[in-house]
Amino acid sequence: MHTRRFFLRRLLPGLAGAPLLLSPLWPARSTALPASNTFALAQLKYTGGQWDPRPRATLALMREVRQRTSVETQDERVVVTLQDPALFAYPFLYMTGEQGFAPFSEQALATLRRYLLFGGLLLIDDARGNKDRDFDASVRRDMARLFPDKPLKVLAPDHTIFRSFYLIRTVGGVRLVNPYLEGVQIGERTPLLYCQNGLGAAWERDFLGNWVSQCYPGGEAQRLEAFKLGVNAVLYALTVNYKQDLIHIPFIRKKLG
């Protein structure tokens, strides 16, 4: 698999024309981004709890990324652990769960810290769409150990993640637990994102193509926002803050106003 640096070289020339808004009906494939070699999403396997509660969620997301952008994606995820040297070949790492899990070892934390500082992105997703439950407690415990001086904070509405491809005003998911996204800021990057709304549960389809879960209370509009955020997260992982320099800030403020 190629590293984030490869994707940067291939993607940056075409990002200036990427769409900022998603129409009410899902649009046809964008031609704003040039084709690249295959992008694969890595999912983190960890000890304890349930690391894979939505096994088909990332499949649906990768298909959406391929359909809505010009990023060529591999449908099947790559499962990695924090002991796997192959971790560093993937710019995007997805972690999900719905139960508490065993504390990461110091060695595992050091590996994850190095991965994030070297340019990787970790998206953590509470699969159940709950607040203040065991998975959330485990996440906050280990993230506090990961960056003791960089706590999880609510991301501002004008953060680059909300405009790396689509202009996002609402954080979707299977449940509207929080109207915001949390993250860890390191310099000008936010290499760690945390959503408690159950993104994967909103993305997942069964083998017949039916949605596995109903989104509450916003229905399909809420599911659409979950997909938009997933697409934005992938593009953010590949381009970091490049879009921040491309977007006319007063225009964005007017749109968010």
Automatic annotation (TrEMBL):
One Pfam family this sequence matches: DUF4159
Keyword Protein transport assigned: no
Keyword field: Signal
Alphabetized Gene3D superfamilies for the sequence: Domain of unknown function DUF4159 (3.40.50.12140)
Spans through the membrane: none
Domain DUF4159: 41-238
Stored PROSITE patterns: TAT
Keyword Signal: yes
Protein name: DUF4159 domain-containing protein
Organism whose genome encodes this protein: Entotheonella factor
Phylogenetic lineage: Bacteria, Pseudomonadati, Nitrospinota/Tectimicrobiota group, Candidatus Tectimicrobiota, Candidatus Entotheonellia
